[in-house]
Amino acid sequence: MLDRTIVISPKENLASNSTIIVILNTGLKDLAGNAMTSPSAWIFTTGAITAVDCVYDQNNYNSCILK
């Protein structure tokens, strides 16, 4: 079975509740040097920030600083 995994590492955290579009253009090569002949794309939506994702400031009730 072929491993069909690609890892995308954004430079910063993705915004919550956002639609993200990832496009892989032609010419992208696998480890064997085979190039994609047609583009591929997919869309996903990030979820909401939850309390476990935040560090709260005791002096500011509505604060949320992402961990």
State the shape.
Answer: elongated
Largest sheet: 2 strands, antiparallel
Give the strand content: 25-35%
Biggest sheet, spatial arrangement of strands: 1-2
SSE-based structural type: mainly beta
Low-confidence stretches: none
Report how far the terminal alpha carbons are from each other.
38 Å
Compute the number of helices. 0
Radius of gyration: 18 Å
Can you give the helix content as a percent range?
under 10%
Q: What pattern of helices and strands is seen along the backbone? A: EEEE
Total strand segments: 4
- Return the average pLDDT rounded to an integer: 78
Short description:
The protein is mostly beta strands and 67 residues long. It has strands spanning 19-24, 40-45, 54-57, 60-66.
Notes on the structure:
- This protein is mainly beta and 67 residues long.
- It is 0% helix and 34% strand.
- The strands form two sheets. It has a two-stranded antiparallel ribbon. Strands 3-4 form a two-stranded antiparallel sheet.
- Strand 3 and strand 4 form a beta hairpin.
- The radius of gyration is 18 Å and the shape is elongated.
- The termini are far apart.
